[in-house]
Amino acid sequence: AMLFFVNRRGIQSRMLQYAVAEAYHSLLMVGRHPICIVHLTIAPGLLDVNVHPAKAEVKFRDERTVFSAVQKAVRSALQAHVPAPAFGSRGNEGWSFGNGAGGIEAEFSTAAPYGSSYAPVGDAEQAGMWDRADTAAPTHLDDDVEPLPAPKQRTLPPLRVVGQVGSTYIIAEGPDGLFLVDQHAAHERVLYEQLADAMTSGSLMVQPLLTPVPLELTAHQRSMVEPVLALLAELGFELEPFGESALLVRAVPAIYASSNRDMGHALMELIDEVMSGTAPDRWREEMAITLACHSAIRAGQLLSLDEMRALLGQLERCNYPRSCAHGRPTMLHLSQMQLEREFGRRT
């Protein structure tokens, strides 16, 4: 459930629900939804409370700024304050937060006459990385809205690699117990943020192919690919027409070139995943998420200690290190207290 209060009065607002949902995008698994309480304080002259007979709805004079303020408050609070999920905490009730932590409360103020506090009490970690402008509701964040100040340590505690189990999970020791890190999910988060930063700054690394790869397409496949050719070029794929129906792949993103996949088949698989059931205004983000997933190291891949240390070092520098781009957790935490209880050292 999402509960919203404007000047201490409970209201219903699809716009505010959408703002919270957008902040959580890519950080919750499919089928999970945020549970939150949002308090919004606003100058009375900037809203109309007479648009609903029971005053259950209000109309904001500047919905764009309100949307931006709520979205930024949510993502700032989540980035700054949510710990890694505790080991054994995932069940039908959803995630709980370790060491008895309950919800999160974060005061938030803006340069405009708006303010909000936010308390997520269910599934959550941080907010999405990609802002979308071509949707029905306003999605650009207002530059005048200042994010919630974060504590000094915003990402992960320092972790010491102990080893690897099942060629899939990295075992690491932290200041308070044991961390199990999913190597694929962790690498996916690293690549997703690197890709997002590179596309924003125009510094995306591209790898030319020594031997261009032809893509033999049916008429239907060609019609599927054409709408996303510009997007593929933006992501680092250099494609050109080859004959009547084929395309020639001359270059790919550097992160993708190192994945050792069948280039032609994998590219068609990537395009199909993105376009199947995804709205066009989501293609850019979904393409980046899928590209990061396809390029990340796989479960079952044996890593050296140096490779594991390098991966955790990259994860520590991420803005949102505790979930992959699909919303799965990158790690689980087994605290020192839990270890002592399991071994009978503490009751």
Can you give me a brief rundown of this structure?
The protein has helices spanning 14-24, 63-81, 183-201, 219-225, 229-234, 254-257, 263-275, 283-295, 305-316, 336-342, and strands at 2-6, 9-11, 36-42, 47-48, 59-60, 106-109, 114-120, 160-165, 169-174, 177-182, 206-215, 238-242, 246-253, 331-334. The protein is α+β, with helices and mostly antiparallel strands and 347 residues long. Helix 1 runs parallel beside helix 2, helix 3 (183-201) packs across helix 8 (283-295) and helix 3 packs across helix 9.
What topology does this entry show?
Layout: E1 2-6, E2 9-11, H1 14-24, E3 36-42, E4 47-48, E5 59-60, H2 63-81, E6 106-109, E7 114-120, E8 160-165, E9 169-174, E10 177-182, H3 183-201, E11 206-215, H4 219-225, H5 229-234, E12 238-242, E13 246-253, H6 254-257, H7 263-275, H8 283-295, H9 305-316, E14 331-334, H10 336-342
Parallel strand pairs: 1-3
Antiparallel strand pairs: 1-2, 3-7, 4-5, 6-7, 8-9, 9-10, 10-14, 11-13, 12-13
- Kindly report the spatial arrangement of strands forming the biggest sheet: 2-1-3-7-6
Cα shape: flat
Could you give the order of the helices and strands?
EEHEEEHEEEEEHEHHEEHHHHEH
Mean pLDDT: 76
Strand content: 15-25%
Largest sheet: 5 strands, mixed
- Structural class category: alpha+beta
* Helical residue percent band: 25-40%
Continuous helix count: 10
> What is the gyration radius calculated from CA atoms?
23 Å
Low-confidence stretches: 91-145, 147-154
In quaternary terms, these chains amount to single chain
Distance between the termini: 35 Å
Number of strands: 14
